[in-house]
# Entry
Amino acid sequence: MAKKTMIEAIRDAHHIAMEADEKVVVFGEDVGYFGGVFRCTAGLQEKFGKARCFDAPICEGGIVGAAIGMAAYGLRPCIEIQFADYAYPAYDQIVSEAARLRHRSGGQFTAPMVIRMPTGGGIFGGQTHSQSPEALFAHVSGLKTVIPSTPYDAKGLLLASIEDNDPVIFLEPKRLYNGPFDGEHDKSIVPWSKHDDAEVPDGHYTVPLGKAKIVREGKDVTILAYGTMVHVAKKTAEDQGIDAEVIDLRTLVPLDTETIAQSVQKTGRCVVVHEATRTCGYGAELVSIVNELCFWALEAPVERVTGWDTPYPHSQEWDYFPGPKRLGAALNQIMEA
Amino acid sequence: MTDTGRSYLHVPEPSFRPGDKPTFDEMIIPQAGAVRRPPVDVHPDDIQDLARTIIRVMSSDNEAVGEWAASLTDEEALEGLKDMMRLRTMDARLLRAQRQGKTSFYMQALGEEAVACAFQKALEPGDMNFPTYRQQGLLITSGYPMTSMMNQIFSNSQDPMKGRQLGNLYSSKEHGFFSISGNLATQFVQAVGWAMASAIEGNDRVGVGWIGDGSTAEGDFHAGLVFASTYQPPCVLNIVNNQWAISTYQGIARGNAATFASKGLAFGLPSLRVDGNDYLAVHAVAKWAIERARKRLGPTLIEYVTYREGAHSTSDDPSAYRPKDEADGWPLGDPIERLKGYLIAKGVWSEDRHAQMASQIEDEVAAAQRESEAIGTLLEGDKPGPRDMFEDVYEEMPPHLREQFAQSLKEAGEG
# Structure
């Protein structure tokens, strides 16, 4: 078993899926000859030919719309939107079409497709290279929304998503592409090669959709996290000496409420953390679910640590990003309550 | 008054509003047979003029003339006449059913019957239409059971869409009719994607995109043209220019700045403009474009010039924005009357036989309606249940939907 970066793991998943099933096609802006601006599709066109992996016009609505038509034909498109920040021109096709096709046609037509998009901040990406729009997809019935935090999960979840018969929004935290990031932005970067979760088995395996993972066991408080914030949560718990149980949700829809409920019933406390803006963010849904399922076990109000309700800034990156300092303060506060 | 030089906003207006006497004098209509029929492998640059004229076959003397004539046998043309009559009869009955409160909503294709009916006649099984809500003629012509259409309109327990969709938003994979969405233009680029899949698979199945004049203003129209032009898949892209987008005349979508067909020229697409009320012309052009697609010669854009004779929908009153008698002045006439006139002039049809067929069709449609209403209408009879609402959101019902389904049954006192 070799260590891989998240980019290499995603690329590996593409190779395996395309070898296993000739119905899998890959396209998007710059994904063909060049291999993607983040190198996630490098080598695919050379190996599988231009009919299986190709460049697309800069037209997100067209990319998603064409993929829906292909999926209706019987292919399994795995397409890329260059940044999640640029998914909005395709939002009509995603929400009104891909998500509803099975339901509105009485099951006659389906959209087995994956829409990959790099997401999240922490990279000085400013307003349009840092957003976390997962709530906009999680809110839409008919979509599955997935976000990995490690190379191992990225490969297994992407293979599971490509094999799934429903449309999947696959959000890739670009801050984690080359190495884990715990929010300590002033320290040197640790590459994936020095991290246990970068052990990626060769060949085919899947990580099931709809299943969360306890990445740190603890008994005092539950932290619900996904994407980059999983690493921030683990680091913060260690630094604060708080015995927190950290859950990596991995799939936002369908959500693994069982794992969440079991944990919060054990700890009696819960902090939700995400990079996305607060109001109507996915955290609101998590807080609501924890309150519904665990109200009588709670010893303190459920806390949310999130990005502020502002557009993602450039120079104020680290005032915006919910790093260890802000999460640590919330953890200490909830432990005192 | 002198020009003060002050800037102003140009807002196009139709020539006629309620109370005005409508004429279509400004419309340039070539004689039937006047426009040439190029070979299907023609270079698109060599037929740019075809985007700015109107291909017509049936003359005012009820003759089929010119190079586009004779794409159909008399028998096939008669079938086409019957298809159009069945569609018009069904439309009239369902319009009445909506007024009687048996359903919430209906949309007619009055005056546009030739476009969908003749196009479908040129397709083969395995091809796929991506229609709008006004191409019911595709289903009629492909032999889809009328009772199934009515079950969808009435949202009863036999509705193939299980009561989930507003009336007219049909779907039949078997009949090459993609699921209709309420969101305009989305299907235009999906048709191109479907055709790209056909090309990727090495097949010659043809994808057909449909869009109205108003919806060409949507971004997905542009996306469809770009993708069709870039990847050259086997597709035909159809624009039905019926002059009106609800209350908005086609000039607002810039049908006056250039013909809708000519919008394909910058993309290097062969672009044709055809008399949409001429069944024979529509069929001939459809056949040409489909043959091109199937021979891997690339996509074609076609504009059908027609007129929306009826209201936009049962929720619309056109007398509020256009002259009541505007349809009477429409210079391309009525598609059913024109095909009927042609067949009679040819001696293969007669007024008597026509009246007899009209009566047969009336009976057939009435029988279908009785059958459908016996199953149920929107408010009465056998209807889809809550399970039909929760199923098919995903392939398998996830835990949160299973919980909500159970809760809905409990709230309904059935849990």
Summary: The longest helix of chain A spans residues 6-20. The mean pLDDT of chain A is 97.
